[in-house]
Amino acid sequence: MTDDLGDLQSGTGDSTVAEFATYEDYLDNQVSETDLFYLEDKELARQLVELGYRGSGEPLKREEFEAKKKAAENFRLNKRLATKVLASYGKDLSGYPFLQALAEREEANRSGKLTSIMFIRTFNAKNQEISGYVDYAHRLKTENFEPYFTRARSLVPRTTDMSFYNWETQTCTSNATPNFQVIADNENGLLFKNKRDRKIINVDPKEPKPGDNTTRSQIVTDEHIQVVIYDHLTRRKT
Questions:
Q1: Among 201, 122, 123, 117, which residue's Cα sits nearest to residue 161?
Q2: Across the chain, what does the average pLDDT equal?
Q3: Cβ-count burial 124-133 (b if 16+ within 10 Å, e if not)
Q4: Edge-first strand listing for the sheet containing 226-233
Q5: How far apart are the C-alpha atoms of 68 and 120, rounded to whole Å?
Q6: pLDDT tens, 18-36?
Q7: Considering 68, 162, 186, 189, which has the largest number of Cβ atoms within 10 A of its Cβ?
Q8: Structure confidence at residue 1 as a pLDDT band (50, 70, 90)
Q9: Given this model, what pLDDT does residue 74 score?
């Protein structure tokens, strides 16, 4: 089983069994016409291959063949799933640190292992400075991120995000999401409460720690004026 995991982790699958539909097909591939001529029995020829008396190299046992066949199929399905589900899959994001950071977090946010809050300070289409806190997992579920990862569109805060502020018009909004509650009237500044584990995320940059199970990452990039990502590791109650 270790070999099967190695095949999957290396990203190759196992091509030695993928071409054969059944174990019998695998054995038949190692039986020559000369073998059949002298033995006059296909089943006997298969048994000799299985025992190692015919064919090249050490043959796989039936259990080994089935295990490798299953591992190869799982690899194929996982690859198809990654291609279908992850918007960042296969995209060249070199030179775009913010998009790279989002790609690294995409699978974990889609699966619920992680809930990331993005603080983005940037300019809108009218060249007005805007900033906001964005629930990455929620955005992934409610819109197509393909245009962002292909750079056809720029990911910016919206009035419908957890927090939004337009520095020119002074428009200010806040909204709860399925993952976070917004606590805007706290004396310590803006806070977010994770709805799954009820942990508080403090986004005050002066605070040494943003909260339990939460890390803060400053993303150095030319894509926006400022980007900070708060990653909250969600832990279900047992």
A1: 117
A2: 83
A3: eeeeeebbbb
A4: 172-174, 163-166, 129-135, 114-123, 226-233, 214-218
A5: 46
A6: 677 777 777 666 666 665 6
A7: 162
A8: very low
A9: 77
SS3 135: strand
The rounded Cα 80 to chain-centroid distance in angstroms is 13
The one-letter amino acid at 223: E
Among 128, 125, 124, 212, CA closest to 168: 128
**Digit-coded pLDDT (tens) for 103-115:** 999 999 998 999 9
CA distance 227 to 235: 25
pLDDT in tens, 189-218: 899 999 999 999 999 999 999 999 999 999
What is the identity of the amino acid at 123? F
* Closest C-alpha among 182, 180, 184, 210 to residue 195: 180
Q: Extract the tokens encoding 60.
A: 């796989």
In the three-class reduction of DSSP (H, G, I as helix; E, B as strand; rest coil), residue 151 is classed as coil
Of 230, 235, 204, the residue nearest 134 (C-alpha): 230
| The model's pTM | 0.65
d(CA 17, CA 63): 12
Distance CA 181, CA 162 (A): 8
Nearest-angstrom CA–CA distance, 140 and 178: 12
d(CA 167, CA 182): 20
